[in-house]
Amino acid sequence: FFFKLPSDSFKYLGWCDIEEHDVRGNQLHCPRVREGPSEEELFFRREERTLKKRKPVTDTEKWEKRLQENWENCAELNLSFQDLGDLYQVENFKRILRRLIRVEKLWLVENSLTDLSAIRLPRCRELNVNKNHFRSFKQLPKIPQIQHLSLAENNITTLSGISDFRHTPLESLILKRNPCEFQERYRQLVFSSLPNLKMLDGIPKLPEDCSPPDIRFFYKMCTIL
Fold first, then answer.
1. How many Cβ atoms are within 10 Å of 170's Cβ, its own excluded?
2. Could you tell me which of 19, 60, 75, 198 has the fewest CB atoms within 10 Å of its CB?
């Protein structure tokens, strides 16, 4: 026989939905923010009885939940591996990102993200969006104070739009395992677009990264007198 564990009734609940605790969002480094499956999905899974019927949520309860989430006061947050398989999951995720007005370090690894261009993270200094589906620098959030940006294992094909970071304090950039990494004179082009960049893909800026493309090409030519 199959017996459900006592915790089974909580498996689709977010931390905010569990009663009788006062833990706030800024006290959690890796909170689960993905919402539970829809009633339709639970029906097809034959799990429609897993969740108890919820009472209508009042405006007071909505406000209390917002205060408990307290995303506005998060300074360091890991929202990786959230399994955002449905559109409503993605929209809820973006709702949370819009509230991160004070976050300085943020990890969003492997969330199948494609476009966060409408999101602004005004104080973010360190952002890790490895293993997502970004195709362009234009799809990244607005991060005017960024210092360390990691974009490994996305699908960025060209360096178009990278110059938008020229006026930021960006010091370190990771683009490993993106198609743009195989572009001719890749490192040279990145550093020419970002003069203040100090490190690319874990390797410090080298003298040869600063030489103009035409000079390097000229050295390869043979002069016949």
1. 20
2. 19
Contacts of 109 (CB under 8 A, 6+ apart): 80, 81, 128, 129, 130, 131, 132
| Alpha-carbon separation of residue 141 from 61, 94, 116, 138, 163 (angstroms) | 31, 11, 5, 8, 15
In a domain? residue 82: yes
Dist CA 204 CA 103 (whole Å): 27
Give the number of domains in the chain. Answer: 1
The DSSP code for 90 is H
Q: 144: domain CATH number?
A: 3.80.10.10
